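My current task is to audit a protein record that another person submitted. What it holds is a sequence and that sequence's fold in token form. Thanks in advance; the entry in question is below.
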Amino acid sequence: MRTLDFAPLYRSTVGFDRMISLLDQAARVEPSTTWPPYDIEKVADDAYRITMAVAGFTPDEIDLTQHDTVLQVTGQRTGRRGDRTTDRDGERAYLHRGIATRPFRQTFNLADHVRVTGASLDNGLLTVDLKREVPEALKPRRIAIAGATSPIGQDNAQVQDNAHAQVEDHAEAA
């Protein structure tokens, strides 16, 4: 696969650093980002959900951190012994261990104004709820245009009032 060099874009653009960094990061897909498997779904217009398959982990062993526009999910089993045939408590002896419990770190780049509203772990699925909340100051707003006449058409009531005032002025002058 061909690699792309984004260095010239950094030199010739101003204010687009984040977008170019995202393109650069997308070009460098690491094989470790495929585990654990996850889904991203759009729940509503401004609500999203990330669901990760983290079987074998407890809520205490998973850490969610959001810093600006980056959400990082890390998992690290605690209390594991060096013996792979016994579990944490040393009570079970495994003949085959197919559920992966290796440490992981998954990073998600979030859009501006997206924040984590909640997280839950149920039946081996970690669910992270996200919501986009654009501040009022940044939302689009309609701006009224002031002027002497209406640019689309005339207001009939205003035309009648003006004509009536002109007739009264002529009557008073005569």
Remarks:
- The CA atoms of residues 37 and 125 lie 10 Å apart.
